[in-house]
Amino acid sequence: MTDFNTQVRNYLVDLQARIIQAVEDVDGQATAVRDEWRKAPGEALQGEGVTRIMEGGAVFERAGCGFSDVRGPRLPPSATQHRPELEGSPFEAMGVSLVFHPRSPYVPTVHMNVRMISAGQPGQEPVRWFGGGMDLTPYYGFDEDCQHFHRVCRDALASLGGDLYARFKPWCDEYFFNKHRGEARGIGGIFYDDFAEGGAEHGFALMRAVGDAFLQAYLPIVDKRRAMPWGERERQHQLYRRGRYVEFNLVWDRGTHFGLQSGGRTESILLSMPPLASWAYQRTPEPGTPEARLVEHFLVPRAWV
After folding, report:
1. How many helices (H) and strands (E) does the chain have?
2. Element (H, E) at 110
3. How far apart are the first and last CA of the chain?
4. Distance in angstroms (rounded) separating the CA atoms of residues 70 and 95
5. Residue-level pLDDT, tens digit, the chain, 305 residues
6. Which own/partner contact pairs does 197-202 have at CB distance under 8 Å and 24+ positions apart?
7. Which of 260, 265, 258, 257 is nearest to 119 (CA)?
8. What angle do CA 120, 65, 264 make, to 5 degrees?
9. Taking the model in full, what pTM does it have?
């Protein structure tokens, strides 16, 4: 009989393969490079993974999707702040994480992540908890796109019962927030962390619900917006807003901190970075423009469904 961690691993490997195949089909031009890696003997973190990344595509300027399964002798501080009793415990962490940066400013950037961490002393049943979610970061907003994305998220969680969307939606709004800017990263979605309710089987069901809903949530938006014409103004706005995306990932994101603190593979941890981004001093959009509406209407947490 396959043990529990192997079941989760097999699901994650298949999820990565399905998503990359779908993205290659949508792009129609670029093929994702397959980079298999394994941590060298003697490093603080052991394990392996597969990074799949597509660059220079017709639709996706950079699209990265990574799978990792790593083990370490001691949980890093970012993983024990809510579980102090596990401080110093050996652990295993596995997951799939993706960020897609489209070429068109009218197609939003998207992030999705599902992961499981198990920890405990040898000879004892490990403690397992789950995290993940998905969120959308438009550069030019459309209400119907935001509604579609949130509707799929809500419906994906409905089969698990309870009030998960009602809890995970505001959690996402709170988490993906650039506190130093006083501004949301995007229009949110769902986010959860340190989830152990109902035991490991329930957490695994939640992982599958989120992972399996991703393509349905995102690809219809790509299909609707990819052919919209755009020029230099829209491109410069996109690059500037990508800078805010970079700021969040480096300053606030717990996943980035966990990976770097635990000795993870830097190149794979930073696959979320856009290929190009820009910064400008005190740049403010002109009132009444679509660029101003992004900040005033879309980057303000609201009920989309």
Report:
1. 9, 9
2. strand 109-119
3. 42
4. 9
5. 469 999 999 999 999 999 999 999 999 999 999 999 998 888 877 899 999 999 999 999 999 999 999 988 877 666 655 666 676 778 889 999 999 999 999 999 999 999 999 987 776 778 899 999 999 999 999 999 999 999 999 999 998 988 999 999 999 999 999 999 999 999 999 999 989 999 999 999 999 999 999 999 999 999 999 999 999 999 999 999 999 999 999 999 887 887 787 777 788 788 889 999 999 998 889 999 999 999 999 999 999 99
6. 200/4, 200/128, 202/160
7. 258
8. 40
9. 0.92
Q: Which residues make Cβ contacts (< 8 Å) with residue 263, sequence separation at least 6?
A: 43, 44, 45, 72
CA angle 129, 131, 85 (to 5 degrees): 40
d(CA 72, CA 93): 9
What is d(CA 149, CA 188) in angstroms, rounded to the nearest whole number? 9
In the chain, alpha helices (H): 4-27, 77-80, 143-158, 164-175, 199-225, 232-251, 254-261, 266-269, 290-293
Burial of 133 per CB tally in 10 Å (0-12, 13-18, 19+) = buried
Within 8 A by CB and 6+ apart from 206, the residues are: 130, 132, 157, 160, 164, 192, 195
Closest by Cα among 180, 176, 178, 150 to 165: 150
Active-site positions read 111
